[in-house]
Each structure stands twice: as C-alpha cells, then as structure tokens.
Predict the 3D structure of the following.
Amino acid sequence: MDQEVKRRVLRLLTYGLYVLTTRHGDEISASTVNWVSQASFTPPLLMLAIKRGSRTHELIERSNTFVLNILGSDQKDVAQSFFKETTVEGNRINGLPFEPGPITGAPVLTELPAWVECKVRSAVKDGDHTVFVAEVVEVGLRRPNAKPLVMWDTGWFYGG
Amino acid sequence: MDQEVKRRVLRLLTYGLYVLTTRHGDEISASTVNWVSQASFTPPLLMLAIKRGSRTHELIERSNTFVLNILGSDQKDVAQSFFKETTVEGNRINGLPFEPGPITGAPVLTELPAWVECKVRSAVKDGDHTVFVAEVVEVGLRRPNAKPLVMWDTGWFYGG
C-alpha cells in the first residue's frame, strides 16, 4: 500500500469537531476530538476513537463516563484552546466555564451549543487508539440554531 | 432524557457519505453509509456502525471484508441510488461500474473518487447496529482533486 496515497485518501473522510471532557474524582481532562460517530439509535450509542496514552483516555477508562461537547461553527478558537494540556481554575477549564453533567458529573462546557453525556459500554483496544462504544444518557441544547464546526472549515486534519 | 432534544442534538454530529460494498462468493451488497470514522493511524483502522439485519451487515459478517467508496461532492444522485436494494448486472451495481478490489475482491466503484479496502478485525454488537473495527489493507485515488460529499450539503439525516 502506497503510504502517501493512504494518507491522502483517509484525509477525504469528513468530520465534525468536539471537546471531550471527562472527570474522575478531582481529576479533569478535556481535549478536542473528531473521530466520533453515532453507532445505534436504540439505545442511542456513540463510538469514539481516543488516543491511547493520553490523559483523556486514562480518565475515560477510570470513570467510564464522558461528555461530548459539540462546538459551534464560530468556535474554531475554542477547539484550538483544547489542543493544549488541561488547566482547571475554579469553574473554568482552559478559560471556559463548565458545570457538572447531571448524570455523570463530567464537565459540560456551558458556552458550547450542545452536549451529550455518555457512559461507556465497551472498548476495543486495537492500533494506537481505543474505540469506546458508549450510551447516551443525557443531552442538552443551549443554542438551538447553532451550526456545528466542521473540520473542512478549519483547514486542520486529524487522520490519514 | 427528552427524546426530541436527543434527536436534535445527535443530528448536530457531522458526517461524510460513502458507498460501502461487500462480496461473499457470488453475492454482492452495496449501500450508502455515514457512521464512519478512522480509528487508528498505526495500523490504519476504520470504525463503522452498520445496521443489523441488513444485507450489507450479513455479507460483511460472512466475508469479513468490505470496500468504503468515498463519494464526490457532485455525487448526491449516486448516494441516493444506493439507498435501494442492490442490483448487479454484468460489471455494474445499481448502474455503476465496478471492478474487484485487489486484496479482498469486494467491489470498487470506479466512478467514485477514492476507495478504501478493509478487513474486519473486531465487531461490537450493541444496540441496533454493529460497530466493525477494520484494517485498511489497500487504497485507491482516482480523482486526486475531488472534494468529498458532506451530509450537511444533502439535506439528509441519518442519526438522532
């Protein structure tokens, strides 16, 4: 397989951008992710691939819960701020206000248009990421007319 | 959980559109799918959620292989033609020409800009779909400058 063609072809897949937050005890992690999709209607499930060895991966494994915060189309700067290490000060993560998710306590970022609270049901450890299959246990919609941030509109890639 | 809010929030996830083809012996199935993402760089893996009980699901389970054909932004009509049942006539599926994938023999749709040939490594049966985690074993790029079809540009939804 030609590695350059593989890189170019896999970069033709389409993604949104999200901030994944997770909490275990006093520890909190938040990071921008894009390898995300729904995986079932009934019950509602998501599938996500998260890099092994990352802090976010560790806290998902320990808590078995997370919140997927959906970025708005005007929040590329917010996406960027979650590429760096997580800093929690008071009720802010990397400068953004949060409150605990109602079911899991994982952080809900209140300035993002929508959020999905999840409990992990299974995990496939293969390659350099883990595929988590998780049940949607609560949702919130703060900006009903918001359009989501699409990876194509950022000029960024994660894939290939 | 409010079911209407759940539907609206899950419909904020961003997807591409693809034609998934699979073959077992003389049997061929092709269908338009969108619950797809990369799941690892090394080795390159994809994750897909495929509806249980569908013909495509059955043939993936039996062959353990498939091709993900990436639709171009000008191919909404092609996406639509694979919503219906698969009809194979000569070297055409639902009217579109194909050739066997080099590694798996699963159909490569030659009018689509790019394709990814995969071998299934694991499956998570949960909810009404199965999550397949599959290794990318070969790729092809026919239209290097093509832009992919994005679900938002079709007005369609599959999710919620």
Q: What stands out?
A: Chain A is about 15% helix and 45% strand. The first strand of chain A starts at residue 18 and ends at 24.
